[in-house]
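Fig. S4 source data, part A: sequence.
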Amino acid sequence: MTVLIDEPLWWFRGQKWSHLVSDTSLDELHQFADAAGIPRRGFHGDHYDVPEEYYGELVVAGAVATPSRELVRRLRAAGLRLSAAERRVGS
């Protein structure tokens, strides 16, 4: 089981956000997010957007802090990365 989280670098609505992904399966990602209390509305097809204030808590819960480029590389290698167009269709 490997759930990854990048640093909260992404600004939206006045706060920074991280991406939470699994490099194994979406089921694993949903299970981790559910256990951590992350609402399903934060899911965007291949990742969860999580506000900066949850970053430390998610790392303590087992998410591995990973640079953004590495996170995307591992998501692609697992065959789980969606294109921006595919994520929009799923919204």
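Fig. S4 source data, part B ends here. The chain has four helices and five strands.
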